[in-house]
Amino acid sequence: MVGNPSLTYAQSVLRCEFCPKLANGLHPATCLLGHPEAEESWERGLAAMCNSCWKALMDAGGAGKKRKGTAERWWLGHKFPASDQKR
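The chain above was modelled as a monomer; its predicted structure follows.
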């Protein structure tokens, strides 16, 4: 079975959200965009990531990883960090 050509093209040009490399896939991620106590500050979705950046986020664990040049903090998965990590 042949895949959808437009989907194949889109996957081949996706760039990593954290560096200029090509992404190897979409991964579930959670992002903190503002104050940790405000529910609207938390965003969940799929993030395009290369293997290196995925590993960096995986190794960061509950502390998450701050994105360079922004105030955003990212975690892998769709669970919010433990409440003691949000403060």
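The chain has one domain: 5-86.
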